[in-house]
Amino acid sequence: MSALLAVTDLVVRYGDIPALHGITLEVQAGEVVALIGPNGAGKSTTLRAISGLTRASAGGIVFDGRDITRAPAHEIVRAGIVHVPEGRGIFTNLTVRENLELAGTTRRHDAAALAQARERVFRLFPRLKERLGQPGATLSGGEQQMLALGRALMAQSKLLLMDEPSMGLAPVLVDLIYAVIREIKSGGATILLVEQNAYQALGVADRAYVLETGRIVLQGPAAELRNHREVKRAYLGG
Predict the structure, then answer these.
(1) Residues 147 and 167 grouped into a single domain
(2) What is the pLDDT of residues 109-136, one digit of tens each?
(3) Half-sphere exposure of 201 (CA within 13 A, CB side)
(4) Average of pLDDT values for 163-190?
(5) What is the rounded CA–CA span in Å between residue 48 and residue 40?
(6) pLDDT tens digits along 52-80
(7) Considering 106, 140, 156, which residue would you say is the last residue of a domain?
(8) How far is CA 43 from CA 11, 55, 124, 150, 216, in A?
(9) In terms of domains, do 102 and 75 share one?
(10) Do 185 and 225 lie in a common domain?
């Protein structure tokens, strides 16, 4: 069975500085795959290359049978990839309602599907329903992360790219965000998850890759990596 996403020998450079040294990974439909590793390993760069925000220097990216290596970001969104960036990336000058409505523009022809997606977001994040008229800038960090995830769910993508969803959040909010990730996973979502919190990432993922200095140094089932001596030493405090 061919993967929903296949990244092959991907190289990304920032000027003369290499950020990714020919990495290869894949994501099957319906699975959660985690990318873990230290700061500067190339995790966020990998997601940005997949979503078209950063141009690949070499290698290939195939999504749902289509080569998207050189596709512009807006075409990649239309193809079914939604990217929740590090730092949330919400429109702080727009209200919660307006943020969610913008996210649903790719499905504006299907009012019933939009309404269903909106109700799902409110069920997962009732606090957003309470704050529909508030500008994004007035939300707490946790509420902004809820809005970022809610926007992504409104788009009803084939593949969700999530970059550091737990960053800067209190432990109780981290638990909430990961409970939501587990719920959308149980509904069949496909997720490529970049996360500094390796314990949380490996707890929700099916498989994982470990990146160091732009190279994949370990890969395998998340449960195995969670018990791997080097992973425990470097990322899990073991």
Answers:
(1) no
(2) 677 888 888 898 999 999 999 999 999 9
(3) 28
(4) 90
(5) 14
(6) 999 999 999 999 999 999 999 999 999 99
(7) 156
(8) 13, 15, 27, 23, 10
(9) no
(10) yes
Structural domain range at position 215: 1-80+157-238
Q: Which of 17, 33, 62 is nearest to 216 (CA)?
A: 33
List the helix and strand counts (H, then E) for the chain.
Answer: 10, 10
Helix (H, G, I), strand (E, B), or coil: what is residue 43? helix
Neighbours of 14 (CB within 10 A): 10
Interval 128-158: pLDDT, tens: 999 999 999 999 888 998 898 898 888 878 9
What predicted TM-score, i.e. pTM, was given to this entire model? 0.90
Tell me which residue of 222, 221, 218 sits closest to 230, measured CA to CA. Answer: 218
CA distances to 65, 209, 213 from 23, in Å? 19, 10, 11
Residue 3 lies in a domain: yes
Q: Which residues pair with 36 in a beta bridge?
A: 210
Neighbours of 157 (CB within 10 A): 19
Domain end call among 114, 137, 156: 156
Same domain, 112 and 76: no
Structural domain count of the chain: 2
